[in-house]
Design goal:
Layout lengths: L4 E3 L9 H16 L6 E8 L2 E9 L14 E2 L5 H13 L20 E3 L10 E3 L6 H6 L13 H9 L10 H8 L17 H13 L3 H13 L19 E5 L3 E6 L20 E2 L1 H12 L3 E2 L2 E2 L3 H7 L10 H4 L12 E3 L4 E3 L2 H4 L8 E4 L5 E5 L4 E6 L2 E2 L6 H11 L3
Parallel strand pairs: 7-17
Antiparallel strand pairs: 1-3, 2-3, 2-16, 4-9, 5-6, 7-8, 10-11, 12-13, 13-14, 14-15, 15-16
Helix pairs in contact: 2-6
């Protein structure tokens, strides 16, 4: 199928327009014409004003092209939203960044660190050096993991228990109870591991606020920001806008993972995932990024305070470390070199070590289906990139995009 390319809005701001246009050509030739990606949508803004917005490729197999209304599974780009929700409760004095997690989730009281066992042998544990605190959930130093990491007896137990299955037997409370019976991989604060920490944080938001996570998101974040196309389950009258989703299989290339017309995201999951469950549009997520860039406010709606955003986007890794030194993760949405971690975001702490253009203090994250965003307060720059291909580390598209976008600044 021939690929359409449309630029929906005029170019404004401090950009070389020819270089911006060249980004779309690069995406088309490198990723769409080759069949590596089914589609891609790129939104670049400066000072909250959209400077470039392009859409290429088909929304569904053999169907029409994607456009500004297309819905994408944003996976772990849900994490910053959950982190903002938690910080809203911090601002209300209902919880603190250093609150021990078991004060809100008593199921976690007495959690120990793996010290042997698994694979049919009872786990042995040793006490944690420090209690798990909310900051450990926000920065992924909790000792929790993901079942797909495939690196330990602990993540194997996650898989065996199917505790991360959204449409399985566990709701969010059952999920917390199941985690409370398994050991941690390390003592909180001792290392960094990409994990279900933000799903646990979603349970904290529910218990502290007294609202379900979908209700909190809808009433406290999405409605004020006019993010009308962001949800855990796509409404029936919008399902025609949900794109197909693919996964990469070695030797076969991309294969269908979830059809838009019969998607698992068309029904509310039993286990609501604050770590990866949302569907959104580029324009909605752009509004979220602009709120962050504006210091917590957009169009008169104050979500959090300016100093809260400043706190969230500092490097909170112990001793000012970076992921290259602290990560035990086999998979992450971040490049490790020169990257710290804040309260819900990866943070660029050393541009030289990253070896790609950027700014110190820039913060970002991505999703399993290769979506991504970044916010650069120095250049007042933000980007939202949408496509639907997992896993996100198959292609280096995020690094390439970042290089091309910064090269277009004048």
């Amino acid at each position: 199928m021939e690929t359409d390319m449309t630029v929906n809005l005029p170019v404004t701001g401090r950009f070389d327009t020819a270089r911006l246009a060249a980004i779309d050509t690069f995406l088309k030739e490198r990723y769409l014409d080759s069949g590596k990606l089914p589609n891609c949508q790129l939104l670049i803004a400066q000072g909250g004003e959209i400077a470039h917005f392009s859409s290429q490729g088909a929304a569904r197999e053999g169907g029409a092209s994607i456009d500004e209304s297309s819905l994408f599974r944003i996976a772990s780009m849900t994490k910053p939203i959950t982190s903002i929700a938690f910080m809203m409760l911090v601002e209300e004095g209902k919880v603190a960044v250093d609150t021990p997690v078991h004060h809100v989730l008593p199921e976690f009281k007495g959690l120990g660190v793996y010290n042997g066992g698994g694979g049919g042998v009872p786990f042995q544990t040793k006490p944690t050096t420090e209690p798990m605190r909310m900051v450990d959930l926000l920065r992924h130093t909790s000792g929790l993991t993901y079942g797909f990491q495939n690196r330990s007896n602990v993540d194997a137990a996650y898989r065996e228990g199917k505790i991360e299955n959204w449409h399985g037997g566990l709701d969010l409370n059952g999920f917390i109870a199941a985690l409370g019976k398994l050991p941690l991989e390390f003592s909180p604060g001792d290392a960094w591991n990409y994990s279900v920490s933000t799903d646990v944080l979603g349970a904290v938001v529910e218990r502290v606020s007294g609202q379900s996570l979908p209700d909190f998101f809808r009433t406290r974040i999405f409605a004020p920001l006019k993010m009308d196309d962001t949800f855990f389950a796509v409404p029936e009258d919008k399902i025609d806008r949900l794109t197909d989703c693919y996964t990469f299989v070695p030797g076969k290339g991309r294969v269908m993972y979830d059809r838009g017309e019969a998607s698992a995201w068309s029904r509310m999951p039993k286990l609501v995932s604050g770590g990866g469950g949302l569907v959104s549009t580029a324009l909605d997520y752009h509004r979220f990024c602009t709120m962050l860039l504006n210091g917590g406010e957009l169009d008169g709606a104050r979500i959090v305070g300016r100093k809260t955003i400043e706190l969230m986007t500092l490097n909170h890794l112990p001793g000012g470390s970076d992921l290259a030194a602290m990560s035990k993760s086999l998979f992450s949405e971040a490049a490790n070199a020169g990257t710290g971690f804040g309260l819900g975001f990866a943070v660029n702490v050393d541009v030289a070590r990253s070896m790609i253009p950027g700014s110190a203090g820039e913060y970002y994250w991505g999703g399993m289906f290769s979506t991504a965003f970044f916010v650069d307060p120095v250049e007042q720059l933000s980007m939202v990139f949408m496509t639907q291909m997992s896993p996100s580390n198959v292609y280096p598209i995020r690094r390439e995009l970042k290089t091309l976008i910064y090269s277009a600044l004048t």
